[in-house]
Amino acid sequence: MLPRKDAVIIGLGWTGAILAQQLTDAGLNVVAIERGPYRDTSTDFNVAYMQDELRYAVRKDLFLQPNVEAMTMRNNASQTAMPMRDYGSFLPGHGVGGAGVHWNGHTWRFWDSDFSIKTHLTQRYGAAKLKGLMLQDWGVTWNEIEHSFDAFEYLCGISGKAGNVQGQMQAGGNPFESSRSRQYPNPPMKMSYAPTLFAQTMAGMGYHPFPTPSANLSQAYVNPLGIRMGQCTFCGFCERFACGNYSKASPQTTILPVLMKKPNFEARTECEVLKINLTPDGKHARSVTYLDANGVEFEQPGDIVAICAYGLMNVRLMMLSKIGTQYDPATGTGTVGRNYCYQTSSAARMFFEGKHFNPFIGAGTLGQSMDDFNGDAFDHSKLDFVGGAGLNCVVSNGRPIGNRPTVPGSPRWGAKWKQATVDGYNNSMGFSAQGSSYPVRENYLDLDPTYSDRHGRPLLRVTFDFPDNDIAMSHYISDQLERLTKPFNAKHAAVSRIQKGWNAVPYQSTHNTGGAVMGADPKTSAVNKYLQSWDVPNVFVVGASAFAHNAGLNPTGTVGALAYWAAQAITTQYVKNPGALVHA
Amino acid sequence: MQLVLRALSRRRLLASVAAVPILAASADGRTISGELPWSPFAGEPPRPVNPLGWYFFTPGEAATIEAIVDRFIPGDHLSPGGKASGCAVFIDRQLAGSFGQSSRLYMKGPFMPGLPTQGYQGDLTPAGRYRLGLRALADYTNSTYKKDFRALTLEQQDTVLAGLDGGKITLKLKSGFSTKEFFELMLQNTMEGFFADPLYGGNRGMASWKMIGFPGARYDYRDHIDKHNQPYPKGPVSIYGQV
C-alpha cells in the first residue's frame, strides 16, 4: 500500500495529461500510472530515423502491441468472437502521449446539434425518423462546453480558418461549424496541389471548402503554458509516426515540459493498472492495483480516480472493476458497453496523366475539407437516413509501402504492375468521406468469455457491424463522391462503397467511441455530464468512451474539450464538495 | 557495391550496438517527478542488416524466394528486379527477427477457425508459414513439373504464381492457413522489401524510390509546398545518408 494521493490518473495520453495539468494547477497531488514507456521527441522521435515507414507504419513500433492487450471481435451476436491477433482496422496508442503521439492532427469540434442530437433531429424531422437508433443527447450543451474546445485548440496551436466567430460568418471558413468564441490560434497551413485543386473545384460547384483544422502547425507558436512549438515541414511521416520537429501537437509538445517539472505531479511509467478497488458497498473507489515492469503488485490509494486510457480500455477497466452495470443488448438495460460506435467511411480516387501531385509532400492534416454533406448540414426529410460525412482532401503522405495507388484493374505484380505503379504514383489524388456512426441496440462492448490477456483478465469483446442507417447514409455519400469527381476530368475515377460486415483487418479508423457514454439519465448513460460515474462518484471516465454517438468528424478535438470540461468540474466543484455532481 | 554496403553496415552496426546498454537501463518501470526525463543517446536507431548470407532460409528456400521476388518484381528498364534489389534478403532478415516470430502479436489459444472479417487465426508464425508454404510449393512443382520452382521457365513460374493468387492451385498446407494467405504474405513482404528504407536489406540503391520519384527521408519540403504541379527536383536520400 502506497501513500495516498489526491488523484490517481490511469493513462498519460491527451486526457490524462490535461487532467494532470489542471488538477495540479489547482493544488492537488496527482500520480499518473501509465502502462507504456516514457517517450519524448529528442530521444525517441528522432529526426534522424523517424522517417522509417517499415518500422513505424507497417510494423507499428509506437502502437499498442496485441500481446500486451488484444480484443476480440464479431459482427453480431450469432458469431463467435475471435481475437484480433494483430490490430488492423484501428490502432490504439501505447506509452506516454498515447494516441496523441501518432495521430494525424485533424482537430474538429463536434457541433451543437451533436450534443443535443436527439432533441435536434426530433424537432426537425419527428421521432419516427430516429426509429431503430439509440441516439440520445449528451447532457452537456454547446454553450457550456465551447470554452473547453477553445482551451484545447490554443493549447495545441491549431492552424485553421474559423467560419463562425460569435455568430459572425467568416469568408473562407466552415459555415456549418457552431459559433466559436474566437479565431484559431494560427493561420491555415500552406496548401499543396491536390487540396488546392479540390477546393477550387468544390467552390466552383457552389460548395464551401475550407482548410482542415490542423494540429500540424503553420508557423512557430508559443502556447498558453509557455511551450514553444515549431513549423510543420510537410515531411510526410506524421500519422503512425511521432513528430521529430515539435510541430505536431501532442502531450509531449504541449503539456509535459511544464507538467513533469511540478513537485505535485508524479508519473509512473511501464506500470499496468489491473483494476480499481471499490469499498464493499461498491459506491466508492479506494485505490487502484497495478503491476510495475518487474511484475511487482502495488496498491495506490487516491481520493479521485480518473480513467484516462484509450476509450475502449476505459470501458474494459470499468467492467473489470465492476463500476456500473454491464449493458445487455437483449434487454436494453445496463449502461457500460452501450452505444459503441465507429466511423463509416468511403473514398474517391482519381488518376490523371502528366501531373505532379508530389504526394510525399504531406502532413497528417494538410488538406481542405467541406461539411456540406456532414451531420445535419443538409435536409434529410426526403432521405431514408440521418447523419452524414465530412469530405476531406488531405495529403498525409506518399510513403510507398502503403501508398502507391494504381488504376483499378491493374495487376498486383509483374511487369505491368510496375508500369501501373509508376504511372499512378505522381498522377493520382483522392478525397475521402468520413461518415458518422450512430448507435444501435446490437452494437456493444463486453468482456470476452474465452480469451484473456497476459495477466489472465478477459479481453474486451467488440460486437459491431455498420447499421442500416449508416449504410444508407454512406451509399448516399458515395453517390455524391461519384458526382463530385466529374468536374476534375480525370482519366479514371473510382469510388468505394461500404458494405455490411465490418472487417477487422484493413485499416479504417482509430475512432472507436462510446461504451461509457455521458448523459442526463443514469439509465442510458454510464457517466453524467461531467464525466463522473453515476455509480461511483469519485471515478471520472474521460475520453471518446463518453461519446453518445460518433459524428463525421475526427474525435480528438472533442476528446480534448471533454478533458478540460471534466477537469473544470473536478477543480471548481468536486474538490469543494466531494460527491455526486448531478443528482438524478 | 557489395563491399561498400558491407563496410557501411559494419560501421553502423557497431554504432548501434554501442547504444544498447543505455536502452536496457531505461527499460524498467519507473517513477518520474520534478523533471523532464532525458538521457543522452537514449534513442533506438535501426540497425542496418548484414547483406551477406541467409539467417532463416535454407539454401533451397532462398533460391525459391529469389525466383519468386524476381517474378513479382521483374527487372526491366524501370528498375532492377526483386532479387537484385535485395527483396529475398529483406524477407530472410524479417523472418529471422521479431516479425517472423509474431513476437508482438496475440498468440494465446484457443486457435479456432474464424471468419474472413476476423483476420488470420492460425497458430503458425510468419516463419512457420514460409517454412510450410515453401515445402508445399516444392511438393506441388515436383509433382506437376518434376522440378523445383526455381528450375521452371519464367513462364511456368508466372503460371504457378497466378494459380496461387487466383485460386487455381491449392497447396497442401494446414487448417487455418490457406494457399491464398501464403501468396498474400509473400507478395506483401516482397513489396515491403522493395519499398522500405535500404537499411533493411531490400531497395538496394533506393531503386524503387528512384523509379516512382519518392524522395525518401528528406523530411522537409517547405521549399516546394506551393510549387504546384511541378516535379520535385531532388533525388532520394536514405536514413543512413545514401544519396
Fold and architecture overview:
The complex is a heterodimer of chains A (584) and B (243). Chain A is of the alpha+beta class and 584 residues long. Chain A has 13 helices and 23 strands. Chain A has helices spanning 14-25, 41-44, 53-58, 112-115, 117-125, 142-156, 193-204, 251-254, 256-259, 311-321, 415-425, 468-485, 556-574; strands at residues 5-10, 30-33, 71-74, 82-83, 164-165, 168-169, 210-211, 221-222, 228-229, 265-269, 272-278, 285-291, 297-307, 338-341, 344-351, 367-370, 389-394, 428-435, 444-452, 458-463, 492-495, 513-515, 539-541. In chain A, the strands form six sheets. In chain A, strands 1, 2, 10, 11, 12, 13 and 23 form a seven-stranded mixed beta sheet that branches. In chain A, strands 7-16-17-18-15-21 form a six-stranded antiparallel beta sheet, with helices on one face. In chain A, strand 19 and strand 20 (458-463) form a beta hairpin. The longest helix of chain B has 19 residues, at 126-144. In chain B, helix 4 (87-96) crosses helix 7 (179-195), helix 5 packs across helix 7 (179-195) and helix 6 (154-166) crosses helix 7 (179-195). In chain B, 42% of the residues lie in helices and 1% in strands. Chain B has helices at residues 2-18, 20-25, 59-72, 87-96, 126-144, 154-166, 179-195, 207-212, and one strand at 30-32. The radius of gyration of chain B is 21 Å and the shape is globular. Chains A and B meet through helix 2, helix 3, strand 4, strand 10 and helix 11 of A and strand 1, helix 6, helix 7 and helix 8 of B. Strand 10 of chain A pairs antiparallel with strand 1 (30-32) of chain B.
